[in-house]
Amino acid sequence: MSDPNLKELYKKYGLQPEDMFPHQHYTIITRQGIEKIEAKANITVEYEHLTVTPTYCAMKCTASIEGKDPVVMYASALNDPKLKMKNCTNTYLLEMAQKRSLSRSILKLCGFYTLGHYGEDESDAFTKATPTQTQI
Question: Phi, psi (5° rounding) for residue 17?
Answer without folding.
Answer: -55, -35
